[in-house]
Design brief:
about 350 residues; DNA-binding; homodimer; six-stranded parallel sheet; alpha/beta; 14 helices
Amino acid sequence: MLKQKITLKHIAKELDVSISTVSKALKNSEEISRDTKEKIQAFAKLYNYKPNNIAISLKNKRTKNIGVIIPDIVHHFFTTVIRGIENYANAKGYNVIVCLSDESFDKEVINMEMLANGSIDGFIMSLSAGTEKKKDFNHLKEVTEQGIPIVLFDRVTDEINCDKVLIDDMQGAYKATKKLLDQGRQKIALLTTEDFFSVSRNRNKGYEKALKDNGLGLDEDLVLRLPFMDIDENKISEFLNAINPDAILSVNEIFGIYGMRVVQRKGLRVPEDVSIIGFTDGLLAKHANPSLTSVAQHGERMGEIAANMLIERVESESDEVAYRTKILEPTLIERDSTIN
Amino acid sequence: MLKQKITLKHIAKELDVSISTVSKALKNSEEISRDTKEKIQAFAKLYNYKPNNIAISLKNKRTKNIGVIIPDIVHHFFTTVIRGIENYANAKGYNVIVCLSDESFDKEVINMEMLANGSIDGFIMSLSAGTEKKKDFNHLKEVTEQGIPIVLFDRVTDEINCDKVLIDDMQGAYKATKKLLDQGRQKIALLTTEDFFSVSRNRNKGYEKALKDNGLGLDEDLVLRLPFMDIDENKISEFLNAINPDAILSVNEIFGIYGMRVVQRKGLRVPEDVSIIGFTDGLLAKHANPSLTSVAQHGERMGEIAANMLIERVESESDEVAYRTKILEPTLIERDSTIN
DNA sequence: AAAAACCACGAAAACGGTTTCGTGTTGATA
DNA sequence: TATCAACACGAAACCGTTTTCGTGGTTTTT
């Protein structure tokens, strides 16, 4: 019962013309007479002819596919980025191949190699934790040397010369910390991750700078560095109980939520006794009780920009355009975990 | 500076042998002498030769790509399914092309058509709201008639003959409702969506059946049907204030969270005064306060099964294998929004 | 009426592989 | 020494397009 996909060859044979004539007729070429074109186009429409993407890709060495490699997909921020990429890419006729590195260096390498052999026209990616830890970027270098463009977003590196789009994480943390200071908070705890993450590093810096600008020094006792997976709520609990802060800044959403819970369990009120601000404006922040004031990262916008940068580069003839780095401004979404 | 990708032709010219010899040598064919093979393999390794995926796809009419079409990616359940698909597919050497229908019938059709012209070997998909509403499945029929296999998950339809994997939604709702009844709850509100969703329909049925089996009738006043987007918390508030239930069953996570908040604002305690159970075991349920008892849908498992079904069908020679429908058992994750 | 121009189309190469079949060379067999 | 495998490799077709470059036939120009 299989309706075999119809090809140019079939049409040519059926209509007793050559394959080239069919191809040209379907592109409305001036070379072909009105009569022949109409006949061929009618036949093609009748049998619902659609050119084979693979053959076209092979011919013009353009796949119209974008490879996206992200550390994790069960993560609100990354899904918003993907949505942004999809939006833009689909409108431009591109498909999106998503691969997950699972925060692993090896998987990131394998996925890139799989896709780099003709499957895609370019990459959009955010580095895995493993890669940031290992500081090995040879797989990226090799790909760019082959002329395959890369756009890095969020978790980027200076080691690779390519287009980048990211959030000014330092400014985000600065704004958040300043907000807390302006409200009279003096003992601001920082919940952060181990240091190899570029984003965390920058957020830590913003926190520190805001303190310094306000005449406060960085007190290492107020900083808790957690592995970013397998979060141990007890550690947070011990830490907060030991230092009794009047405010908490968290470099992500989940630490903020945990912090809030610990504080509330102690019988303290949020935001009256302790103000809390997190990063990543996701579902948890929005629906927490009280809702969590957050630094929004504008993932969807980021995805759109990344896709735009990549497609422009893929489609530009001259490959002499300088690489751009687009830095987005973070926004502080004020909710109920801080005083207005 | 572009290191041009090396091809069989390059190797052949460089080593002064034919392309066929190179091809065979790299596949370790018995036809080629030990000496020649070693020479060619060494050269290929040195220059890091990797066959061009597109050319291979064109030749064997297999892309090793799976097309996944889902309504929305910023949605915990779907992301877990994707993760499951990725896991299984990658292990089998397949890539995953993700397209978003955005709950729109038209976008679903466009995406399918884009991918169906050679880009993928098969589809895994969950129907968009638009498609379920319109009940038009011709795009699916056309694809299957072309011999491209489809696996439907979660939001499926009887109209299409293909492999399917889904959760026994009725049983899930039944279990949840029964749990509430067993705890002595008598006035169980149901927060559900408009009726065209197959999943909601089945969950509603489970709710009703549990009531009937326990000698209670279905009281339409206890049922609130909401459009599933642009949720209006006020509607939920009015509804719950009007009927004062002692328990709430929600067909998704978000309605459950809203319900909980409304109840708490009224000064009632969860679960003492009102027990609540939701569907979809996501982040919100886990981190709500109190945490939300939920019916887990095992998205990751679902994705793995779907990928397995699809790949088996793609790779099987005989296309006479009967279509299977795999029904997963839902699990009730008991948390703090119900009494233990 | 011969030369030039134009029209409408086809042949063939190319993209980068895989695979079937054929063939020249070698060594063993009768 | 003639015959025949076995061996090691190459030619060519094929997958489905696009595109360049002919070319035979008609029309226009002089």
